[in-house]
TrEMBL record:
Domain of life, per lineage: Bacteria
TM region positions: 24-42, 62-90, 102-135
Sorted UniProt keywords: Membrane, Transmembrane, Transmembrane helix
Keyword Transmembrane among UniProt keywords: yes
Pfam (any one): DUF4956
Name of the protein: DUF4956 domain-containing protein
Protein's organism: Phaeodactylibacter luteus
Length: 229
């Protein structure tokens, strides 16, 4: 019993020496502030079609979780080996289809890595440079393209589960239709398309046919001139 207590005290002392409490709290605070700024930047300047705010809510727990893992791993070789074994049976899954989403996830992970490695100054400088470069590049690209009319984001919620029928209906009125997201509901589906329209007359005809599908079918059309379709 005395041996077990000695081992516990030795481990606690080793962990305290390798991970000082003030250092730990400072890194968590700096990382949280930086990732919150990253979240605001993504919400305001991201190019994702929808759900930017909900997706950006993942940045903070992801970064802080990464910070915690790095601080624990660097404090003990035994813990790092145990982590390798644990991660070998854990898979991180996320519905990510936009490369921009993956890019911002990597930046959030990078902030967590910098915090866990006790490099808060590096994290501050790196994020300032990254966001500055991204902001300048967006200003430059915004001045270049001409506005393109007829490029649409279409969201359709229906209790009908015949995807081919719905796609065929859209294609009969629009010259270009591409399915980008499909979510299954308890009854029916929620579909997201990007499309191109010829004129308002074709959209009016599409609206009438969609309404005729079923009483619970809902159609939302948003002008998205920056889409490449």
């Amino acid at each position: 019993m005395d041996l077990l207590q000695q081992l516990q005290e030795q481990y606690i002392q080793e962990f305290s020496n390798n991970v000082p409490l003030d250092e730990f709290l400072l890194n968590i605070l700096v990382t949280a502030i930086l990732v919150s700024l990253l979240r605001l930047f993504y919400i305001h300047f991201g190019q994702a079609i929808s759900n930017r705010r909900r997706f950006a809510n993942n940045f903070l727990p992801l970064a802080l979780g990464t910070l915690l893992i790095i601080m624990i791993v660097k404090s003990s070789i035994a813990l790092s080996l145990g982590l390798v074994g644990a991660l070998s049976i854990v898979r991180y899954r996320a519905a990510i289809k936009d490369p921009e989403e993956l890019t911002f996830l990597f930046i959030a992970i990078g902030m967590g890595l910098a915090g866990g490695a006790n490099q808060p100054v590096l994290a501050v400088v790196a994020l300032a440079l990254i966001l500055g470069i991204l902001y300048i590049s967006k200003l430059i690209w915004k001045q270049q393209p001409e506005r393109q009319e007829g490029r649409l984001f279409i969201q359709l919620t229906t209790d009908i589960e015949d995807l081919e029928k719905i796609t065929r209906l859209l294609s009969s009125h629009l010259p270009f239709v591409s399915l980008k997201r499909m979510d299954t509901l308890e009854q029916g589906m929620e579909l997201s398309f990007i499309a191109r329209a010829r004129d308002l007359k074709s959209l009016a005809a599409l609206k009438e046919e969609v309404k005729a599908l079923s009483p619970s079918t809902r159609l939302s059309i948003v002008d998205q001139p920056e889409l490449i379709v």
